[in-house]
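Translate sequence into structure tokens.
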Amino acid sequence: MENLIHGLGALGSTSAIAYLIAGSLIGVVVGVIPGLSTVVILSIILVFSYKIDLTGTLCLFLGCQCGSFYAASVSAILLNTPSHPEAFPVTFDGYPMARKGQPGRALGLSAASTCLGGFVGCAVLVGFLQIINSFPSVFHPPEYLALVILALLLVGTIGADSVAKAIISAGAGLVLSSVGASTITGAYRFTFGSEGLSNGISLVALALGIFAIPQMVMVFGTGKATAAQDLSGREIVEAEMPSIGKGYGRELLGGVGEAFRHWKIVLQSGIVGGVSGIIPGIGGFTGNFLAYGIAKQTSKNRANFGTGAPEGIIGPEGSSLAKEAGHIVPLIGLGIPGGVSGALFLGALAIKNIKPGAGFQTAFPHVSGEIVWIIALSGLIGTIAGVLLGPQIAKITRLPGPLIFPFIIVVCLIGPFLSDSLFFSVGEVVVFGIVGLALRRLGYPLGSFILALVLGPTFETNVYLTRSIYPGISFLEKRPLADAILAIALLVLVTKAIELRREARKAKIAAQAEASGADAAASRTTPYPVLSLVVTSCFIAFAVYTGVTALTQYNFENGLMPEIGAGCVLAGALCRLAVDVRSCVLHARSRRECVAGQVTAPGNERDEGSPAYAEREPGTPTAAPTTLQRVAPPTAAQASEDGGRMRVVLGSWGRAGQYRREIIALGWLAGLTVACWLADFPVASAAFVLLYGLTCTRSYFPGLRGRLLFSIVSAVCIYFAVYEMFNISGAFFTSVL
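Result follows.
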């Protein structure tokens, strides 16, 4: 209780309140817009963790994260397009209720349930904080080691289309975490004499590179609004927004009151979310589904679920914020994050020299109290702001993505430089951006990649301690809890493999039933077979080089970590190699048959971007957008009539071709990087935005006057924004030359 009182007192300063409100409002805006992703914004916020105090960092980071959850349900209810994967269950009853002419009621139910459920989750968190100091007596190095493995598998296999890809991502992250000084001996590894690598891979550069850069490149590639695609580049089905009439306010208040009348479901869902959030990798995605299922089973109105039942909204929404409170328990008690956002938060704490885990409550007694209050207050602020602004903010989901492309790119390149004043970090963003684009296109789970990078030092330390205390594999006999956790991890791996094989078999049968000849051969290939084979070959070369270098140039203690990571990458890549070779052979055969005239139907070509690939495996993250059409490039007038969104020509490498546009986007990224290297960052950024506005906004501003106005105003704004960012941070921004 004392920690809670002190934690509330720490939030009484003007700066803390400002950061909390700012973070919550940012979360509301980001949460409403599908495709932008909170992770992208958290990656950018991570930059500012170097320059603000601990309380400000907690307020800004957690405020943005927790403030976004109700906002995510706004787009789910009004547009049938969830911004977060966790918001998907809300569409089951929220959108039908809105389509019935009751959008205010649905939003009121969602708002009250999210806020009240968050309070319940905070109560669950406070309860677990009382026993968190006993964790070190239960968890020893073998248990920590097993927990890291379990977290990597749980996070990596959620949404993945291949267990091998999850293993590759985790292994690559472990290898990259070994770059720099060893946590055991302090010796430098894989630095190649570079000062930029001496402190290891920059978490800020990696997060921005694999999340923000690919997202912006994909948005530019389709020329559509951010609402038109998710993080993997798949097209999101756009729905018509229900009209909001004059009785919206009265309807909304009625929904709030109705949620209070269903207080038992709110309490039940909050407890379900808080407890499920404690399990790393589980609560983040399945907590809301579990709460929805339990609400349905315990409701007397279960027959109406899916048609606009109020309990169908209260169930998942009562869990959404509560599970975020539950995520804090393993994060501060064991140092194990529950997902990507948790990994970024762990990185923010590391920037402040705070190490969660054993002794956290003793060393930082008031931080946990601050976290509890921030989650509760940011959820309240975000809900109120979402109620007032949500329907209006939802309209900006139609904003063309290419218009925000230059601004996000500027922040992505400048952010890492602000954190360490090394231009090397800017280069890291570009490299990881290209790598992230390829991996995301192929459906690699990037969550396990960044989680492995963050947990790598913990993994290495506990591998060394486990080996020192329990020689060989003797810990299997002496630590039954570690055995149980490892057994669960193995069960997760096997279950996921069986599930994926079953889904692949069903998809194959369905595709072959509709195809014949070359179509049948092509239906057995994976999307982007050539790119997949190239990436797999690169991973094999990467693993072999890393393993051989670790064996020949480092002693056992220094080489153990990169060897483990390289072994995971090599094992997963070899499993993928046979699949990729077979897919390339089938792809080449189908192309030859098409050329020979065996496929005569127009528009049936099976290129890597064709709709056939998307239709072969519905929901596969590597599939190209399914609504893109084979039409002539639109004129500026046509694009303007289409709400400022361009139609992309599949199979074309013209200006409207998606892949050609993505290459152009990468060219803009490279150009900005070179400009920042040659000139001052503010000047280079302003010149970049000015040139971009004059050349790439014709579809949105057909007239020269409009483009000039947009370009000049944007350039001036970005110049002063970047200048102030450097001025506040004290970073050196003059030319490198």
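Note: The first helix runs from residue 2 to 10.
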